Amino acid sequence: MTLKHQLVVDHLAAGYGEKTILNDINIDIKAGQITSIIGANACGKSTLLRTMSRLLSPSNGQVLLDGKSIHNTPTRQLAQTLGLLPQSPIAPEGITVSDLVSRGRHPHHGFLSRWRKEDDEAIAKALETTKTTELLDREIDELSGGQRQRVWIAMALAQETDILLLDEPTTFLDVAHQIEVLDLLVDLNQNRGTTIVLVLHDLNLAARYSDQLIAIQQGQVFANGAPNEVVTEDMIHAVFGLQSQVITDPISGSPMVVPIGRHKRIKHT
Amino acid sequence: MINTNSTLARVTSGRKNRSKRWKCVASLLCLLAVAAFSITLTLGQSFTPPQDVIKVLLGENVPGASFVVGQLRLPRAIISLLVGMSFGMAGVAFQVMLRNPLASPDIIGVSSGATAAAVFAIIVLHMDGASVAFFSIAVGLLVALAVYGLSYRNGASGARLILVGIGVSAMIESFIVYLLSQAQAWDRQEAMRWLSGSVNSAQIHQALPLIISLLVFGGFLLSRTRDLEALRMGDDTAHALGVRVGMTRITVIVSAVGLIAVGVAITGPIAFVAFLSGPIAVRLVKNNGSLLIPSALVGACLVMGGDYIGQFLLPSRYPVGVITGALGAPYLIYLIIRVNRKGGSL
Hints:
- Chain B: It is a multi-pass membrane protein.
- Chain B: It holds the Pfam family FecCD.
- With about 270 residues, chain A is an alpha/beta fold.
- Chain A has one domain: 3-Layer(aba) Sandwich (Rossmann fold), CATH 3.40.50.
- In chain A, about 30% of the residues lie in helices and about 25% in strands.
- Chain A contains nine helices and twelve strands.
- Chain A has helices spanning about 45-50, 75-80, 95-100, 115-130, 145-160, 175-190, 205-210, 225-230, 235-240, and strands spanning about 5-15, 20-30, 35-40, 60-65, 70, 80-85, 165, 195-200, 210-215, 220-225, 245-250, 255-260.
- In chain A, the strands form three sheets. A six-stranded mixed β-sheet of chain A has the order 6-7-8-3-9-10, sandwiched between helices.
- In chain A, a hairpin with a 2-residue loop joins strand 9 and strand 10 (about 220-225).
- The N and C termini of chain A lie far apart (about 60 Å).
- The model of chain A has no long low-confidence stretch (mean pLDDT about 90).
- By secondary structure, chain B is an all-alpha fold.
- Chain B has a single domain (about 20-340), classed as ABC transporter involved in vitamin B12 uptake, BtuC.
- Helices cover about 75% and strands about 0% of the residues of chain B.
- Chain B contains 14 helices and no strands.
- The longest helix of chain B has about 40 residues, at about 1-40.
- Chain B is globular, with a radius of gyration of 21 Å.
- The mean pLDDT of chain B is about 90.
- The chains are: A alpha/beta (about 270), B mainly alpha (about 350).
C-alpha cells in the first residue's frame, strides 16, 4: 500500500426529507488508521456513515475522496476505492459462501468483461484473511452470526478497496464474536494498510480498537481525536447523558468507561 | 502460502461448477422448449409426420399438412414461444429487483394496466394491431410509475409497493368490468376471449412486434444482468458494490413493462406466467447465475405446455390463460402463507 487515499468530510449537512440530521460536520479521516464513530442512539452516526459512503446525498457540503466529491464520482469507479458493509445486508436464499464472497468483485467488472484469474485470487485471499475457507461450500443460512459476519466482511474484502466503512459490524454478535471481528479488522488494517471507519456501539471496544474516535452529539462533532483525548467523563456526560468514571483498561491501556447508575454502588462511608 | 493455493483451486472450481450448472439448466430448458414447440407442430387433432412438418417449414406444399401446420399450428407455436419468453423474463426482472416473488407484474397492476388499455383501445377506440400495443405500453408504464410513485417514501420499499400495486390492480380490474358492461355484445365476446389470455387467433405477422420487443427490451434487461444480481443483496450493498440503483430500477421497469405490454396487446394477459416463471427458474438454477434467460425459457414452456393441455388434453377446449391460472393460483396462496411466516425472498 503505497498510495493512501484521503477521505475528508467538509461542512457536511444531511438528513431524510425535510428532517436535517447532520449539521456542519468536518472530519479528516486519517489514512491507514482505524476510526470509530460513537454517539448515543439517533445522534446521526449511521447517517454520517451512509453519507460518507454515498448511500445518502448531502443537503449541504461534501465528502471528498482525494479532493474529489464522492457524490459526483461514477459509482463503480468509487466502489473500487471505497467499500461499505451496510448494517443489514441481505443474502439471497441458499447462496453459498464462495458465491457470496465472489460478488464483491462486482465493481471490477463491466457489462461484458470476463472473469479473470485475479478475481479468483482476490476471493481466495479474502476467504483466507477472514478464516472462512472451511465454510466455502456452506450455505449462508446455516452459519452462526459470527461466521456470517466474517463472510460479509470477506465479500467487502474481495472488493479490494483501500477504505472500508462498516456500519455497526458487531451489533448482533456475542462478546467473543465481537472481539473476533474487531481483531480481524485490525489484522486487515495492519497487513493490508486498509483505512477502516466504523460505527460502534460499545464505547470500550471502540476506545480499545480505534486510532481515532469521533463522538457525535445531535448531528454535530462533539469531540474528535485519539481515544485517550476523547474519552473523558465530561464527554460521556455530554454525549450520552451518563455519569461515569473513566479508568485505564488493564489489558490494552486504553481508556475504559465505567458507568455510574442509580443502583448497585459500593457504599462509601 | 500453500493454503492460499488450495483455497484458490476450490474457489475456481466452485465458480466453474456454478457456471456449468447454469449452462446445464439452460440447455435442458432449451431442449424442453424445443420439444414443446415440436409437439405443437406435429401432434394436434391429427398427427402430422415430422418429415411433412419439415417440408412445410421449408416452404413446400404438402396437401393437408400445409394448412394445418403452416396456418394453424406454426403461428400458434411461435406466438406462444415469444409471449412466454417475454412474460417470463419481465416477471423475474421485477421479482429480482424488488426481492419478492409477489412483485410480479401480474400482481402489482402492470399487466392489468396494459390489459385495461388494450380493452379500452379495442372496445372504445376501435384500434387494432400496433396502435393497441403502443397504447398498452404507454398505459402499462404509467401504471408502473404510478405504483412506484405512490409507494415512494424515503426510497421505495418492496412490501409497500406490492400492497399499493394490488390496490391499483383491483381498481383497474373494476374499470375493465365497467368497460365490458358498456360494450356491444359482439365486442364483449371478442374482448372476453382475449381477456382470458389465449393464442387461439395467433397469426404469423404478430411475431414481428414480439421479436422486436424481445430484442430491444430483453436486450436492455440482459445488459443489466449483473446489476440485478447485485440488487438481490439489498439496495445498500448493491450501491456499495457500484450499482447505480436508481438508474438500474428505471431501466428494468421500462424494459419489463415493455415486454409485458407488447405481449398483452397480442395475446391478452396469460395469467400468472410472469408470476410463475421466476420462482420455477430459481429452483432449477439455484444461485448459479442469472435468472433472466432461464425464466424466459420457463415462461415459453409454460405457455406452450399450457396451451397444449388446454387444447387437447382436457374434455373441452380452454384458452391457455385458464390453464396457467389454475397452476398459478395455488402457488400464490402458498407464497402468501410462506411470506407471512418468514418474509419473502426470491
